[in-house]
Amino acid sequence: MAEVNRPQIEEAVRLILEAIGEDPNREGLLDTPKRVAKMYEEVFQGLNQDPKEYFETVFGEDHEEVVLVKDIPFYSMCEHHLVPFFGKAHVAYIPRNGKVTGLSKLARAVEAVAKRPQLQERITSTVADSIIETLDPHGAMVVVEAEHMCMTMRGVKKPGSQTITTAVRGIFAEDDKARAEVLSLIKF
Ligand SMILES: Nc1nc2c(ncn2[C@@H]2O[C@H](COP(=O)(O)OP(=O)(O)OP(=O)(O)O)[C@@H](O)[C@H]2O)c(=O)[nH]1
Ligand SMILES: [Zn+2]
Asked: Nearest to residue 66, comparing CAs of 166, 172, 187, 164?
């Protein structure tokens, strides 16, 4: 996938500044297009990352019980308004056939998926599906809680409102007890 085109972003930011009635040549704004381009490169770097690659790291460990990494902080950009939404992701799976991955890889997958123009639902399901497709576990479950700036600083203006999304796959979709165990561990 193409890297970001920094000069194009810089030009676009100059145009936006002009369009809102600002002077892109005033001292305080001179370096702003460059800064914004650099920032976009950073906050959209997930477009160049495939979350599934992280799960190539597996240890042949015989653990077929819940593994949960909770409270993974993330920042993303809503694809409708290009303003941040941010919160915590909780990622659980039950390994099968010794395919236990590195704990940090679960957080890296969240990071790669979040750093794109996104929807909260898509972050949630993409992380769950990536785990299923690569580790072939008994199940995967992802819960994401986030605050959307497009609902707080503008529009409907509801600061503090939280959106919670879940993706349940495999045994977590079939077995109420397995799902309840993860939910209670998240609240623990
Ligand atoms: N499903 C979903 N919706 C989102 C997410 N982030 C932002 N939105 C919503 O996207 C919608 C876009 O609605 P539109 O009516 O096209 O845009 P708008 O006029 O700016 O909408 P308002 O925010 O209601 O002012 C809004 O309801 C946002 O709350 C997300 O991650 N998931
Ligand atoms: Zn939005």
From this structure: 172
Q: Tell me, in angstroms, the distance from the centre of ligand 2 to residue 75's CA.
A: 13
| Per-residue pLDDT tens over the stretch 12-62 | 999 999 999 999 999 999 999 999 999 999 999 999 999 999 999 899 999
Domains of the chain, CATH where assigned: 6-43 (1.10.286.10), 53-187 (3.30.1130.10)
Helix, coil or strand: residue 92:
strand
Tell me how far apart the terminal alpha carbons of the chain are, to the nearest angstrom: 40
- The reported pTM is 0.95
Q: What is the ipTM of this complex?
A: 0.89
Sequence-distant (≥ 6) Cβ neighbours of residue 60 within 8 angstroms:
98, 100
151 lines ligand 1 (CB under 6 A): yes
Question: Using a CB cutoff of 8 Å and minimum separation of 24, what contacts does 15-20 make?
Answer: none
E strand intervals along 62-176 = 67-78, 84-94, 99-101, 117-118, 139-148, 163-170
Q: At what angle do helices 103-114 and 120-135 cross, to 10 degrees?
A: 140
Cβ(83) to ligand 1 under 6 A? Answer: no
